Amino acid sequence: MIKTLYLRVVLTYSSIVFISLLVAFPTAMTLFTNRFIGEIQKEMLSIVARIAQLQEQFQPQDVDAFLNGFSDVRSYYYFMLYDTKGGRRMYGAPLKEQADEPDAADVRLVLGGQVYTTLDFHAERDANRLVAGVPMQVNGQTYALFILPKFFDRFQEARWLILAGLLIVLIIGSLLILIASRYVVNPLKKLTLATKRLARGDFNVTVRVKQKDELGELAASFNHMAGELKQLEQMRQDFVSNVSHEIQSPLTSIRGFSQALRRPDLGTEDRDRYLEIIERESERLSRLSENLLKLASLESEHHPFHPAPIDLDEQLRKVVLAFEPLWSAKRLQLELVLPKTKLVGDEDQLRQVWTNLFHNSVKFTPEGGTIRIELRPLTQSVKVRIADTGIGIRPEERERVFQRFFKADASRQATSGGSGLGLAIVKKIVDIHQGTITLDSEPGRGTEMTVELPATHEARPQR
Question: N or C: which end of the chain has fewer CB within 10 A?
Fold first, then answer.
């Protein structure tokens, strides 16, 4: 069984060349024979006509002298001369040991005064049957002159030359196939080695292929895949690191204050404050765990998705009312533009989107600031814009706000208890609804989040 692609390619190409030569040799020989014999036939007929013309013109008296005068012809043909008494003379030796002789009936036919030609040729039977006969009258004596070609051995030699040429083509072609096959297979070997390295966890592997064909496209796709896997691995490591960091911080606080509670001289006021901190950090761990589970569920293939008609304006009002204690305590001004609007979507998931976005606006808008929620129904979609006059986001951080665990201001987020998962959850839910979310923000002037969702067809989750 052939196990290597290189050997398989070599054998395939070699077999194709060999079969092509097997077909080409008899074809070439047939074409060569037809062309070669055709020229011989024409030339023999021309010689017969020439001899007849010269005989009639000069009326030779000496047959030997007459025939010896055709020295140019006898270089390629030999003559056989028969007389009426059964005698035979040969002029010019054939190129093989035994000369072919005409049949006795053909000799009698020519002696009777008729021109005889037979142009049958059967190379596969080693028979030379190209014969032309012409009657001659010399000094009152009747002769039968037969012309036969000497080409048979040369023809056999030509056949061997053609065969040798085809064998040389086979040998050279096989060598070129060996080289070309290596050129074809080498990129695949590189891809195989690179795949093994990738399987071992080496994501820095790169395949360098100069071809611009399908193999080049395959190598480019592999390099792109390796880059994506490297980025995915980096994201996984960052995710583990961020989760560990987010968990470690509240655990450290809980452990530290738990130890402080054991002090016998601890006052009631300090004890209550420590217990409050422990409770707050426990809630922070609970929220982190809940958000991680929610994000993992959203990214899985089995997360439930229940689209249904929603009164979007009412849903936004309920979210605002749920946070009334927070925005009232900060004396924030709310501007609501909520016309009657229906939307098809998952009610629970969309409530999570508005809750996260509105909570961020309340959290990062200073006292006395303004939050504006505007609902705008369009022909094929619905836009929800939530704008605040908060602290804003720096330009270099805008592209990363939807990444998991990213915090635009780490020190500020630490005090606010954020985990950096809220906007990642928002982005995933919007993607599931086949919508888009855009961010417009300037430091010191506030942030504006715009969510656009399709309204005229039932959304489907993207996996």
Answer: N
Task: Report the top-level CATH class of 304-454.
Answer: alpha beta
In 3D space, the residue among 383, 386, 306, 305 whose CA is nearest the CA of residue 341 turns out to be: 383
Q: Taking 80 as the threshold, does the pLDDT of residue 391 lie above it?
A: yes
Domain segments of the chain as ranges? 5-156, 203-303, 304-454
* Chain center to CA of 266: 72
Asked if residue 336 has pLDDT above 80, the reply is: yes
Question: What pLDDT was estimated at residue 1?
Answer: 46
Instruction: Please give the average per-residue pLDDT across 351-370, as a whole number.
Output: 89
Domain 203-303 has CATH 1.10.630.10: no
**Reported confidence tier of residue 4, pLDDT bands at 50, 70, 90:** low
pLDDT at 410 over 50: no
Average the pLDDT over 424-435 and give the result. 85
User: 273 or 250, which is more confident?
Assistant: 273
Q: pTM, whole model, 2 decimals?
A: 0.47
> For the segment 168-204, what is each residue's pLDDT rounded down to a tens digit?
877 887 787 777 777 777 777 788 888 888 888 887 8
CATH placement of domain 5-156: 3.30.450
Alpha carbon distances (Å) from 401 to 321, 380, 406, 440: 26, 28, 6, 12
3-state secondary structure the chain: CCCCHHHHHHHHHHHHHHHHHHHHHHHHHHHHHHHHHHHHHHHHHHHHHHHHHHHHHHCCCCHHHHHHCCHHHHCCEEEEEEECCCCEEEECCCCCCCCCCCCHHHHHHHHCCCCEEEECCEHHHCECCEEEEEEEEECCEEEEEEEEECHHHHHHHHHHHHHHHHHHHHHHHHHHHHHHHHHHHHHHHHHHHHHHHHHCCCCCCCCCCCCCCHHHHHHHHHHHHHHHHHHHHHHHHHHHHHHHHHHHHHHHHHHHHHHHCCCCCCCHHHHHHHHHHHHHHHHHHHHHHHHHHHHHHHHCCCCCCCEEEEEHHHHHHHHHHHCHHHHHHCCCEEEEECCCCEEEEEHHHHHHHHHHHHHHHHHHCCCCCEEEEEEEECCCEEEEEEEECCCCCCHHHHHHCCCCCCCCCHHHHHHHCCCCCHHHHHHHHHHHCCCEEEEEEECCCEEEEEEEEECCCCCCCCC
